[in-house]
Structures are given as C-alpha cells and as structure tokens.
Amino acid sequence: MAYRLSAVLVLMAFGGWLAGSAAAQQPAGPPAVGVVRAERQQITQTDEFVGRVQAVSRVTLVARVTAFLERRMFVEGSEVKKDDLLYQLEQPPFQAQVDAAKANVDQLDAQHRNAQIALTRAQELLQRNAGTQATVDAALATERALAAQIEGAKAQLKTAEINLGYTEIRAPIDGKISSTGVTEGNVVSSTTGTLATLVSQDPMYVIFPVSQRAELDLRNRYAGKGGFNAVVLKLRLPDGRIYQQDGKADYVSPTVAENTDTITIRGVFPNPVLVSGQPGQPTVRELTDGEFVTVLVEGVQPITVLAIPRAAVLSDQQGDYVYVIDAQKRAQVRRIQLGQSTPSTAVITNGLSEGELVISEGLQRVRPGQEVSAGPATPTPAIPPSSVGQGGASSANSPSQTGKGTGASSGAKK
Question: Which stretches does DSSP call E strand in 237-344?
Fold first, then answer.
C-alpha cells in the first residue's frame, strides 16, 4: 500500500514539472514600446561658439615730457570721463619756457614795428628825390627779416605751450582706468613706459572664431534673409546665466586663419552700469574686457524642420539610427542624418519621412525585425523658458548631437 502511494506521488510531481516546462516554453507576447510620429516643427536655430570680450577702445597713458609726477588725480579701477585730469606733472619749468617765448615774441614785434616805420620813411624820401633806392631796399629787407623772426618766435611759443599742456595728462576717452604704474615723486618721461591703461566700457566687442565650414553654413542659411541682420547674438556668461542684452554682428574677417582654418566674427553688445558707486569709485558692469563667454548665434525667424525626440536616436560605429515601425508592426533599423539638435529634440535632415512612426520608449527590448506592440509614447515635459539656453546646448565634441561638429544647437518650439 505504501509502495502504491509513493508511485502516485512521483507521478504527480513529474506531471507538475512537465506542466511547468510547457508553460515556460510558451512564447511571450511582442514587447511593448512607445512610438512617436515624425512631424515638422517650428524651431529657432542657435549655434554656439566660444568668444572673448574686448573693449572697443584701449588707450595706454604715457608721459610726453620729462618732469616730476606731482599728483595722481583718479581712483584706481574707477571710471573716468573724457578730458578728466588724471596726472599732474611739475609745471614751473614749462611755464617759464612759455613766459620766455612770449617775451621774445613781444621784443621782435616791437623791432618789427620800428622797421615798418623806417621802411615807410625811406619810401617817402625816395618819392621826394631825397633818398636812394638802396636805402629803401635795406629797410625792406630788415622789415621782412623781423617778420620772419616773429613767426619763428611764435612757433617756439606754441611749442612751449604744448609742452606745458603735456604736464596735465587727461583722459582721451570715457572708460575704466587701471592701477597706476608710477607713483608721485618720480620723474617720468616718454621712455618711462605705461603710467596707466584706460579701456572703454560701453559698448563692448565680443570676438569669436568660427570654422570655415560653420561660416559657410551660416552664410548659406541666412543669405536670402539679410545676412547677419537676420540673426541676434546672445551671450552665456561664465556662470551659466544668459546676458540680458542682445548684440549684433558688425564685422567678419576677410581672411581665414591658416593655422586654425577659422574666420573671426565680431559682435557689439551694450554694457550698461549694473551698480553705480560714489563718484570716483569703481562701477560694476556685466561684461569685462578679456572675459571668456559663449556666443549664441540665434536666427530671428523660426524655420520648419522634421523633428523627433532626442531619446529615439541611437548611435553606433556606423552613425546615428532609429527604429521605425513598418506595415507588419516590426521594428526596422533606419539610418538617419541629424541637423542642428538639442538634448530633447533631434532635427532630421535625411533618412526619415514625415508621418513615420519611430520608437522612443522601450528601445532596450527591441531587436531588428522583431514584432512589437506599439503605443503612444509619454509626452515630453515642456522646458521652462528660464532654462532655455542654460544647460540644453549641445557640445562641440558630440557630433551625434549636432551632426556638424560645430557646437551648434537649436531650441525647438511646438
């Protein structure tokens, strides 16, 4: 009896194992994936380049006469106005030269007046046959010589006055001044070197190099839209903030740099005062001469492009590709070419047609030629306006994102 019970139990266990194996061998259903439709969208194209802020005007202040430096009239690092007195040099020696030159002019002027009288008298005597022509000629020569000496003396006086004026070193432009290179009590001259440097503040240039390929792309893109008048320049500051003032391109280099194969473009940006200090105290502005910034070349008018979510794009050694759903509901590999893209939106220039279904979710479960269960993908959350341009720019070292390797990006708009 016990033997029969054991046999029954063994048969039941074996039957359960067979049932489990059969269930395990039953094929699973097609993997569920999320799909989106390739559609045309309005985007504003934005290209990014590294630039440097440069002052419009830069003046190196030097002494033009040899004299003691008596006073420094400015606060180092402050902004000064044109014609403000910056340095006062020793004046008495130069004032003495001016006074001596004036006295020389007055003396020669008196002698000249006397020569004119003598010439007139000699001419009258000659008319009455009481004088000679030789006397008239001598008087005329004396008068002309003294007139010439007066002109020379006036030139010397002018030189003395100019040298006296050089004892006051004034600001030739509006701008911010550096620290002084020479302190009071020292003798300065034209060979002393730089006393201080003055740089203009508003507006500011931003210089940025562009590869020749990128320059040709920009030129072709905006050729029929007014050239650089069709773009707005924006700046991303070193801390990631977008500068609030827009700029305009005003210069393109006529030559290509041989060592870098780049063309230099210059933009002009307003640089208003942020914090105004007390008179003569440092003034705070956003842009500083020599500062590194990121230049955003943004089109004025949006353009229509074919776009899909950036998450749908995969890459391998052959390039970029996506999975599309064919008529048999199978996932097929499709090679594509990317245009100006962002981390959230991929612009397709070749490889896809409008209306095709592209897998954007569940890609890890998909194999080429595999049947899938397609459903709508989760909508992409909207990007807040405050974050646009602060962390969503593609990198110049990621060709799979840009398709051009120029560091370009675009902001998509539904």
Answer: 248-252, 262-269, 273-275, 284-285, 292-299, 303-309, 314-316, 319-325, 331-335, 337-338
